[in-house]
Design a protein that fits this description.
Blueprint: H1 2-13, H2 21-35, H3 44-62, H4 66-83, H5 91-103, H6 105-117, H7 125-150, H8 152-172, H9 175-191, H10 198-204, H11 227-259, H12 270-295, H13 307-338, H14 342-367, H15 371-390, H16 394-403, H17 414-418, H18 424-429, H19 431-442, H20 454-473, H21 482-491
Length: 499
Amino acid sequence: MVALLALLFDHLFWEMELGLNLPLFAGIAMAMALSRYGWRQVSAPARWAFAGTMVATAMVYVHHSTVAITAAVIGLIVFAGLVHERSLRSLPFAIPQAVLAFLTAPAAVRKGLASARGESAPAGSGWRWTRIALLPILVALAFVQLYRAGNPRFDTLTAGFFDGLFDLLAELFTPHLLFFLFALMVCAALVRRIAPEALGRTERTLNDTMVRTRLRRPRWARPLSLDPLERERRAGVVLLVLVNSALLVVNVIDINWVWFGFTVPEDFSLKQFVHEGTWALIWSILLSMVVLLYLFRGNLNFHPRNATLKRLATVWVVQNFILGISVFLRNWHYISFHGLAYKRVGVIVFLALVLIGLITLIIKVRERRSFFYLARVNAWAWFAVLIGLTTVDWDRTIVRYNLAHDNANEIDIDNYLSMSDKVLPLLYANLDQVEQQMAQHRNNRVRWVEHLDPAQFRLELDAKRERFMRRVESQHWQESNWADHRTRAALTNIPPAHP
């Protein structure tokens, strides 16, 4: 199974761009892995990983976007870690499990070859002979190379032999052979249970709910004092009172300023307001999460007088949630002024994940949940959001939004030409709108875009189109995708400005 799948991997991916080959390989590899156990014997997390990966690989063909390719690869890694270890429930353990399987694949190949030789062959005999024959040669070659570097006459004496040897090795270990060995390791990790069970055993010891572990002391020993824990509780109360007070002022200012009736004053740096201010506030939210994780890391969760501390922690999380909404509105005002871009979409997605993290943090504080619970739930949230992002053609969405934007003199026209080829039909169909945006930019006091000449823009657009046509015409079937097919069909009836 591994050899056949590796041959398919080599045929689909060697010297090929990603396209139809990725969903084909992913579907076949996951089907082969599932056939070893049966659908009913596979864990629920593995089924969810399978479903998410199938969506992501389908979107590789449909949209052919970077986020879809990334999600498909991550999905395959997660699936490989979960399908062969039924006890695993979380991505923080599933991903290392898959990586460990990939790294230990050569040892599994050696074990498989030993079993193929028959029961009469002693275990590990092949490796022992390899070690006896190969390791001394490798060590000797290392020393000879050092002697050649240190002694020019010795280098001249041995140059012919060793140069010929290295040329022979270069012919034997070709890039294609190394690629096929890589394919073997990938396929072995996908369809066979290779990695040791250590990670699974470790995860089984972790629970979603914190359990108080009592330390039994000898009867003659004095009971431990609660004074250190009480001092930590009081310090936590003081800290949360102070930060809640400061954050309350910040939230009141933001609600009055950013939430309702926000306008951009003259000579106001909206870029600084959003870029630097947004990330400063995001870091403050992340830092607050770290502080609460530290405070509620252990016995404070079971302190008989921790009700006040929990209430203050809940208020702080709620205030950070409000702060997250304010950060989102800052970014939204920036989009309303300057249009959409990848990073602005990324900020929104990241904020959504941070807000999910804050919700799970409230649950952790109030219900004595463990750090493992936070890592497990939030990792699955990240995975689900990543799969959801693959279903949107972001390039076309961004260009459509920016072409219809009211604030034409603040749209980044240069960014149109840096987008993927999928937006070419949109740009050709809306050249008049692009020219209007250029005209608005020429009226700006400060001109910050380069493309203000419609003729030059059209020339560069035609050059981009010609590169796309050459690329599509030279594509193999493995590299094909519906996004390129749709774009090519739309461009067929659009003549270039200068044929």
